[in-house]
Amino acid sequence: MRLKVLELLKQFEKLSFTTDVWSEPSANVSLLSLTAHGITNKYERISIILKCEQLEGRHTGEIIANNLHNILKDWNLSAESVHCILRDRGSNMIKAMNMAHFTDANCTIHQLQLCVRSAMESEEFLLPVIAKCKKIATHFNHSLIAQNELKHIQIERLNQSELSILQECSTRWNSTYYMMSRILKLKDSLVLYSGMHAIPILTADEWLDLKKCITVLMPFEEITKELSSATATIASVIPLIYTLKNTLETEKNKEDTSDNFNLMITKMIQDINVRFQDIQNNKLYTIATYLDPRYKLKFFTEITKEQVQSEILEILGCSKTSHDEGSSSPKIARNELATTSSSHQSHIQSCLAEILSISDEEEHNIDCADNVYNQFIVKKTLLTEYNREKRLSLNEDPLTWWRIHTKYHSLSNLLRQYLSPPAGSVPSEQLFSAAGLIYDPLRNRLSGDKAAKLLFVKYNLPLLSFDYKNYD
């Protein structure tokens, strides 16, 4: 398997990585993961678990940085082959990236979860509602008799399909969302059950607050699921964050939004603005968004449109001369986009699709520079032609588009580099979910080195296509 991985890594000039640290207190083991992400020359996305390195002692930034360098060295990868590393906002992780001189980015999903958690914990009017939901979930989680009686009420008395109460997990905000959604769905059953048993039950106003809270949190859940998919890339972050803020503004302006929820949504938007304030100036995001044919220049200001194309030309080895024309893409007014969600959109993809459908004709009015003959103009013309191409719909694969449009072959290395990063560190978190299964109560003395090998084998087996005989 190591030979196969080495063979695969040779075809990449640049790779993106996700990393995370996981600890199992009962076994006194800590693991540092490093997962490589790349796009092959056939425009196929690939992820490779390079290693789960056992961490000894304290998890300082210096130790993490040294371990990351050692893992790269084990796979004959240089620091120059690192396009970027996705990590959480832990101070030790941030320090490790600075010490190792890696280009890094925050996990978008983790950032969104922090926005939600901060909003829910700061709004006192919601705390009693959440507390009651937790007590209801605990009551049914601890009693099979209660579960069976609730199912009987759903089937026999309300003629509904049976559903179970979902329990909250303290480490995942979306589990709170799922718990609240399920309790709202089982409202009638729970009210009937509470008439026969002493359990906490929400008041009429609290049921309304619960329903509104779920509506406000729904876009966060949809974006989290969208960015957690295996095909999601960092290119979708700017469009989805813009759409999220647009959707929240629409929700805030609805007539049924109380002052409490108005304040809560305002805090959410402010928190999002703070956490993602530099995203429009970060070329990891802007170039990736531009190279995704579903988005291109749609979500950029006039200055950013000029900047991102200039950066691409510089990366391609073209010097920007004084003859360079101004930005060729028309400015999209902020208030024009702000009206795209004037009516409620329950699905975040619907909002995003609606925004992308605006001003297609304006984006085609792109002029080419005249009377300058050099490499800059050749590449600039290529980008102009790319700008004129009709944007893909959201359900189409951008890599398939690039594979078919061979006239843009000279941009191949660039897009393979900038579209390789996932939107978050989900691959590393999934790896550690499996680690939690390995360290069960009867196997908590397993060494970290052996656990790392088991994880390496488990997740990289598909790379061999399960054809073991060729790698004896």
TrEMBL record:
Record-linked Pfam families: Dimer_Tnp_hAT
Compartments where located: Nucleus
Major subcellular site: nucleus
GO molecular-function terms, A-Z: protein dimerization activity; zinc ion binding
PANTHER family: ZINC FINGER BED DOMAIN-CONTAINING PROTEIN 39, ZINC FINGER BED DOMAIN-CONTAINING PROTEIN 4
The HAT C-terminal dimerisation domain, residue ranges: 383-461
Keyword set includes Metal-binding: yes
Keywords, in A-Z order: Metal-binding, Nucleus, Zinc, Zinc-finger
Cell membrane as UniProt keyword: no
UniProt-listed InterPro entries: HATC_C_dom, RNaseH-like_sf, ZnF_BED_domain_contain
Lineage: Eukaryota, Metazoa, Ecdysozoa, Arthropoda, Hexapoda
GO terms for cellular component: nucleus
Protein name: HAT C-terminal dimerisation domain-containing protein
